[in-house]
Amino acid sequence: MKHSVNPPPTPDKDVAEAFEKDELTLREIINIKLVESGEKENLMELVRDRLVECGWKDEMRIACRELVRKKGRKDVTVDELIRVITPKGRASVPDSVKEELLNRIQNFILSAAP
Amino acid sequence: MDLSSQVFLDLVDSVIADVASECHRIARLGLDRDLEVVEEELRLSVEARAKVADPSNNLETNTKYVVDIFGQTHPPIASEVFNCMNCGRQVVAGRFAPHLERCMGKGRKARTNATTTTRSSTAAQNRNPRRSSNQRYSPHPNSGSENQLASGSPGVASEDCSNGTVRGNGKGD
């Protein structure tokens, strides 16, 4: 019997890539499960409610208005708004909200894992 | 776990995109009546009003001809010439009412002229006393210009006399 020996991917770069690919797939799997079970929708609603309650959304709208005032009402684009708002938005989420969401997500992943 | 953080960030990014989209729409449609914008528009409208009320504007152009919202000017006396539907003559629009008064025989002035020009003097004399007494009670809007036209024009029961060429032959086109 003749084996065709496949050399293992020894170089580091390949290992990293393979690792990344696996993680992407895992993330995709989780995402699919979230959507199928309807949990993603629940989480979205929860996030929106929490962020509105704590005034985060108003802060974001003020920031948007600032940008609109600077760039002019008719020249501003959605992409530009998103690009400018995102770093500020991600950073200003209250810790309590973040914690609550992370817990729920972790629970989901644990329960969904085979 | 990094995975859950990624999922979390994914959710937050979605909400951010929603907010950005909403603000973009409001900005483009001008629905957000910003304080600055309102102030600016208010300032402009005040300026415009001052300009309109300013007496140092060209008074010659303003007193005679009023400009309407479409930018059209209307001369105070309508100058268009058309044909009277009663007698068929050419009439200046601005003089149409007095013309009709005579043309349709509104009353005394018209008939007086008719009787004096078309009928015999005896008949006119018989009728005149009545006329004069009537004239005392009901005043006529006697204008000098009216007599000018009346002298040549007959009353109701009239055949076409000399064509009353009215002044201002400019046709409003």
From TrEMBL, chain A:
Pfam families according to UniProt: EnY2
Single GO molecular function: transcription coactivator activity
Predominant cellular place of this UniProt entry's protein: nucleus
Domain of life of the native organism: Eukaryota
Keyword Zinc-finger: no
Keywords per UniProt: Activator, Chromatin regulator, mRNA transport, Nucleus, Protein transport, Transcription, Transcription regulation, Translocation, Transport
GO CC aspect terms: DUBm complex; nuclear pore; nucleoplasm; SAGA complex; transcription export complex 2
GO BP field: chromatin organization; mRNA export from nucleus; protein transport; transcription elongation by RNA polymerase II
Subcellular location: Nucleus, Nucleoplasm
The keyword ATP-binding is assigned to this record: no
HAMAP family to which the protein is assigned, alphabetical: ENY2_Sus1
Family note: Belongs to the ENY2 family.
Function (record text): Involved in mRNA export coupled transcription activation by association with both the TREX-2 and the SAGA complexes. The transcription regulatory histone acetylation (HAT) complex SAGA is a multiprotein complex that activates transcription by remodeling chromatin and mediating histone acetylation and deubiquitination. Within the SAGA complex, participates to a subcomplex that specifically deubiquitinates histones. The SAGA complex is recruited to specific gene promoters by activators, where it is required for transcription.
Subunit architecture: Component of the nuclear pore complex (NPC)-associated TREX-2 complex (transcription and export complex 2). Component of the SAGA transcription coactivator-HAT complex. Within the SAGA complex, participates to a subcomplex of SAGA called the DUB module (deubiquitination module).
Name of the protein in question: Transcription and mRNA export factor ENY2
Automatic annotation (TrEMBL), chain B:
GO cellular component, one term: SAGA-type complex
Low complexity composition-biased segments: 112-139
GO biological process: chromatin organization
Signal peptide residue numbers: none
Keywords (A to Z) from UniProt: Activator, Chromatin regulator, Metal-binding, Nucleus, Transcription, Transcription regulation, Zinc, Zinc-finger
Segments of skewed composition (Polar residues): 140-151
GO molecular function, one term: zinc ion binding
Major subcellular location class: nucleus
UniProt cross-references to InterPro entries, sorted A to Z: SAGA_su_Sgf11
Subcellular location: Nucleus
Disordered: annotated span: 107-173
Record carries keyword Nucleus: yes
Gene3D superfamilies registered for this protein in UniProt: Classic Zinc Finger
Family classification: Belongs to the SGF11 family.
Protein name: SAGA-associated factor 11
Source organism of the structure: Thlaspi arvense
